Amino acid sequence: MARPEPxxxxxxxxRVLVNAxxxxxxxxxxxxxxxxxxxxxxxYYIEEEGRRVPKRYFTEDLEAVAP
Length: 67
Known about the structure:
Blueprint: E1 13-16, E2 27-36, E3 41-48, E4 51-52, E5 62-64
């Protein structure tokens, strides 16, 4: 089965959308994109001001922002 293209790319600036799953706002860039085999979707890791944010995010948790 072919994987779809990821919505976000490494280095792309993003904002974490605050909702029931995400309570801490973050503004940073994508540092890693990983295909999650069990869920059959991408997970994203971000960095903010040079520091890694340890939480993983899904496409619906992130919003692209202008650089």
